[in-house]
């Protein structure tokens, strides 16, 4: 039998149950990645660059036998199956609203020609939907989900990497010109990310718990893009970690799973409040100067501006600073979280619908977990606590490089502030904090 492995967010050969199943059931197996114009349109330049880097690595590992095509996946897959007489297409499952809709279309199109669509692997540590309460319902809050998740760790099964002989098809891909202008990220792909994982586990993970919240330190794994594209499976990462010594790191991987599960159950949660009570909340338009200043990193709050400038220049932002910048948009500028999530999603190399939208809902207080709306980040206090010497700020806000430590978090108090070319704070945080709470209370009172 002839089979096709349709790679999507599983751009790896190691720890891949989909590939194993295809080779176990078929004599000859073709591998394809389809550049879907709908997905490409939503991916910013950083994510495209990572994708191309990861594909180039995969292609090399498959001795140039990966077919990379462009177009509507249903049509591309039907054409491929026709030309090689394939009877089954194997995939790893995905959780986003679009991917589910797309897979349903492809499944129906293939079934119309008696070709099976077989979903094998999944993007979470354990199969989607497998972690449930005793009564069969899903966990709604993180802590008990994490407990159940941790209890399963001793049974974690990782798929060994086996060498397979992929079938070859010469294929002339026609791509839109803008794609040929994207430079593949040289640090992307399975080979490099395995090295990054090894390095993290040998030299950084012991400092993770104490330093993970300090954005000036390079103490986190930086594996988020690899996990998003399935260049590494979370199983592989978890299997590298000692659960007794590095629980904090594991709990972050579990947050990723929890958000993927949430999206799997509530597909609309990527753009709608999970907590419907917040639908009545009054918000400001994102079509505004305030929003533009936030995007450009010109708010006058050094830690917020450093984060937004890190995002614009690197396509990445430290987690603590993601929380601070998101809180500033929602609670100081009163702009709906979806506007911020849209911008983050387009700019982040690790932009992931589940982690991004639910990260924003966590900050906004509109999600399922116990993050009350009245938790409002004070950008100055956060800055003093997590970037005490201002090293992170100085790295991205060049106007503040020469400002003495004692003024770095509140440069407007510095007597030479007017010479720096840096803006005054665009809002009074205490006033906006009160305004955010007022709006929240008003929402609660609405029938
Ligand atoms: P590490 O600290 O090394 O963590 C290891 C892995 O655990 C990460 O790679 C990631 O896969 C996962 N993880 C860590 N923290 C979280 C978290 N809070 N929620 C979910 N998963 C987590 N993460 C994304 O991967 N894509 C996004 O689009 C995204 N958007 C976010 C938006 C907001 C507003 C917030 C507050 C967080 C967002 N996160 C997102 C989560 C987190 O900020 C990043 O995963 C993390 O900063 C990536 O850096 P790292 O790989 O060094 O993380």
UniProtKB/TrEMBL annotation:
Database matches in InterPro entries: Crypto/Photolyase_FAD-like_sf, Crypto/Photolyase_N_sf, Cryptochr/Photolyase_FAD-bd, Cryptochrome/DNA_photolyase_1, DNA_photolyase_1_CS_C, DNA_photolyase_N, Rossmann-like_a/b/a_fold
Residues annotated to bind FAD: 208, 220-224, 249, 252-259, 350-352
GO MF annotation terms: deoxyribodipyrimidine photo-lyase activity; DNA binding; FAD binding
Q: Which GO terms describe its biological process?
A: nucleobase-containing compound metabolic process; response to light stimulus; response to stress
User: Pfam families of this UniProt entry?
Assistant: DNA_photolyase (PF00875), FAD_binding_7 (PF03441)
User: What does the UniProt cofactor note say?
Assistant: Binds 1 FAD per subunit.
Concerning its family, UniProt says: Belongs to the DNA photolyase family.
This chain's protein is named: Deoxyribodipyrimidine photo-lyase
Q: What is the lineage of its organism?
A: Bacteria, Bacillati, Actinomycetota, Acidimicrobiia, Acidimicrobiales
